[in-house]
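This section describes the prediction task in plain terms. A model, or a person checking by hand, is given the sequence of a single protein chain and must write out its three-dimensional structure as a string of tokens. No templates, partner chains or ligands are provided. The sample shown here is typical of the held-out split.
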Amino acid sequence: MGSTNFHSKRAKLFSPYISKASFVYGPSTVGENSIIDPSVIIGYPTRPKTKEIMSKNDALLDLDMYFDMNSIGTIIGKKNHIRSFTTIYEDTELADHVETGTNVVIREKCEIGFGSIIGSGTILDGEVIIGKNARIQSNNFIPPKIRIGDDVFLGPGVRFANDLYPVSSRLIGIDIKNGAIIGIAAVILPGIVIGENSVVAAGSVVTKSVPKDAVMMGTPARQIMTRNEYDKKKIAYEK
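The expected answer:
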């Protein structure tokens, strides 16, 4: 029967709000007053390290101790709330005041900025950078080499592609500039730049880079108005 918790002796746990039913591997850090829910895993080893286990054929291997000794740890800042069934891989850093929903996966070499929220069911598939105060809604898949700026909003189920000719050995990033808004179920193709304060409407397929302050809609997406016009319509709608 597997263990129900593990807190590494090498970890630096500064918060009193870490569930006894959580797992913290390696020299991970959890900052002051962060909440770590039950069934959260912090500092999970990368795939090459876990694959090594299958070659050992060792029935006596203690899996938690193996994970602990092979993890380089992850950094969780102050006043974060990491909700249940979230797994955060090693070599990733969350700044202060970050929140995750449930069932979130954040793989290695990710950086998440101050005050950002990662919605339930979202996957950050490694080498993803997210700025400050971003709002990533539920069920987003964000592959490697995606950069998301400050104050960006992603609706639920946005999909990013990073490979023009799957399955190739060359991955191409996407850059989402500060203040951009991307609606539910939009698709963003490789190499695209989403300009500052631009808007991509729900369900759009973006095949070309988006200018600053543009509002895009359709398949393929085309500009239908400016951000200024969009904001005026929003204000009228909210009255």
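For orientation: The helical segments are 47-56, 63-70, 227-238.
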